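Before the break, one more example. Copy the sequence into your notebook; we will annotate it together after we see the structure.
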Amino acid sequence: MALGVSHLDRDTGDLAFTDALTGLGNQRRFNDKVERLIADRAEDPAPFTVGILDLDGFKPINDLFGHRAGDDILIQVAMRLKAAADGDSAVARIGADEFAFLYPLVFSEEAAAEKSRMLIEILSAPYDVGERTARLSASVGCSLFQSTDDSTETLMRKAETALYHAKRSGRGRVVVYTREMEEAAKRVTRIEQALRRAVAAGEVAPHFQPIVDLNTRRTIGFEALARWTDRDLGFVSPAVFIPIAEERGIIGPLSQLVLRKAAEAARNWPRDMFLSFNLSPSQLVDQNTGLHILSILERTGFDPRRLEIEITETGLMTDPASAEKIVEDLRRVGIRVSLDDFGTGQSSLGRLREFRFDKLKIDRAFVASILEDRPSEHIIRAILAMCEGLGMDVVAEGIEQEAQAERLVQFGCAGGQGYLFGRPADAEATLGYLREAHRGAAYARAI
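Here is what the structure looks like once it is written out:
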């Protein structure tokens, strides 16, 4: 049976199958079309392509221009996708800013990727928003029908898995599903489930890395870093479980657990030492974040003036208005705010004027090449000069060599952090480190 538009869309009058905003088919209609195509090819399972397209950065645009303008953009997206579909293809809106497409005559991974890149290109052109224009990109995940074992649900799940990988690898990407992705997705799910159990049981703990005065080498504070060893999975790197926590909605409870434990440990430190703690981008769009932090400090009896919160440029860009309110709420009670990983995110220098930061942390990428790379040296000098003018403290991260520390001191950098001064250690080892430092200082004064 030929699969033309008239066949696919013969029930256009049925509102239950139509997206009210764009006029495209909805999830029900799309699933129905895929099921019909699978049935049509039952005797000769020739491949076809199913894809899911997700708009990158739609929420900030929606917040900036307003929901009505956001709806106008979605309508324009739908019109472009519909215009790009040939007589055998179909497109539907299946989520807030998510669309699905069906290509009955696209038989290979290469062709699917090429078609998807074409859609991304079409959607990258400016959108009219009243008298202004807006730009956005899209990410796409595709899956190919290979046999009658592939159901509509299976194909969509595979496309979602591919989309997940596309979103993780950056904006404007296309990923076609592979079996390796399925194994990776299963591992992510295993880690997610284990992490949920660990957070509920209080098994994730803070480790503390020293932050020092580069001139005297005296420890002035510690950064709290989450560490987790699972009974079945063993040690799980934070580079693995933190992104999963952010993507699967666990980061809030995880962060609160680690902050509570860190604050309880830091109560036993000398009063002149601060605790530094990271907030994820997703926490900067949750207006309850400030309340959670203040509640933890009140319960643990930890002085807010001894706490520094670190946020990244990427976190600021996600929702600047929300981030600004959270930052101001924290600063109001004496909590200091640091801009982490400076120079590697999407923000502009204008953010330093719009937001009041107490401290800036120079990213380890610049420190690592300071001894042999002239551009890195000039960038660090420029950052230090800028911070002096803005009245901001500076900490250089990732210091591993004495020569790096000496060069930073020459440039006028006051604070440092890295393996040269100490690796992250648990609460007990950190307390021992402080006692040894105290005994050493007492001995130095005695002689």
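Residues 65 and 129 are 8 Å apart (CA to CA). The two ends are 95 Å apart (CA to CA). Try to locate both features in your own notes.
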